[in-house]
Amino acid sequence: MDWSERSLRIAAFRDVYAVTRRAEEAEERIRDLHLSHGTGQEGHCLLLVGPPGAGKSVALRRYAARHPDVEEQLRTHRRILGIEVPPGCTLRSLARTMLAALGDVAPSRANQVEATKRVHTLLKACGVELVMMDEAHRLIHTDTDRIAYDAADYIVGLLNTNLCPIVLAGQPHIERVVTTNAQLGRRSVGEVYIGAYEWEDQDQRNEFRLVLNALEQALRLPFPFRLGSAETALRIHHFSRGLLGPAVLLIEEAFKLALDRSLGALSHPLFAEVVDRLRIGDGRRLVNPFVVEALAPAPAAGRDEAVRPRVEEESARRQRRRRQARSEGGHAD
């Protein structure tokens, strides 16, 4: 297989979208928020939360794809504006990110006041009906665990203009941004949680297996492997902790090896090799679910598991700096 064909096969696999109940619920709530645009109601926001790899960003991209830009005679009608909140978010960096997404020719040259005015002007001029902010947990700075209050107030300001509603998508600790800002909390219409699949829950287990079957059909390999079989699905679930992101990555990497080696099907030994490749650091000490005969179900990834270690690590780092500063008779940074 030549390189171009290989690339096309992989790209086709990445374009697969498996419809799930949780994704449909998320899209329904986003659609309800979207439909509030132009009704004269005050602007509202919706939280879309879940651990990394649960499928939040996929749901946003899916919804945006269903509402593409419309080329009109005098403008491009941007129905959906999707952005990724920048790391270390500040009011200025958030406004500049929005300006760039709106097609501003020189977003980096705008000062804070100019950027804010131009965002409002372009949102109206482009006819934006809904803003979707992914990675919105970056409104909380990882190194200090503090909320970027100026950026949060800026979001409130956008809602106050009644130009368009806003979806804030990110890890669950973004809830703090809303619960600690009375104005933003008043504008919230709730949250949608997209979490990991629980193996012990029969309905969730069955849906997880159906997703795996849909992914296998997209591989178009000569021989079926039955990714959704109870035995294989359990091992994929064990590796991914029930998160679709890691599960899809595992399958894609195994698919690449199968293409490179001209294999007609996937296999447990192939998956075992991929697991060893993907794991780093302490993860390499975990059991490889594809090399053991008997395997107990692993607990699904929790709401805050990806967040808590980083926050605790940064907290411990700050405490070490303070102790060192006191011992040296100086001040911590």
TrEMBL record:
Organism of origin is Azospirillum argentinense
Q: SMART domains per the record?
A: AAA
Would I find Ribosomal protein among this entry's keywords? no
Please identify the protein, giving its name as recorded: AAA+ ATPase domain-containing protein
| Record PANTHER family | GENERAL SECRETION PATHWAY PROTEIN A-RELATED, PHOSPHORIBULOKINASE _ URIDINE KINASE FAMILY
Top-level lineage group: Bacteria
Its taxonomic path starts at: Bacteria, Pseudomonadati, Pseudomonadota, Alphaproteobacteria, Rhodospirillales
Record InterPro entries: AAA+_ATPase, ExeA_AAA_ATPase_DNA-bind, P-loop_NTPase, TniB
Asked if Nucleotide-binding is a keyword of the record, the answer is: no
Query: Per the UniProt record, which residue ranges are transmembrane?
Result: none
Using the record's annotation, list all stretches that form the AAA+ ATPase domain. Answer: 42-198
Instruction: Give me the stretches of Basic and acidic residues compositional bias.
Output: 302-317
Region annotated Disordered sits at 300-333
One Pfam match, given by its short name, reads TniB
Q: Which UniProt keywords apply?
A: Plasmid
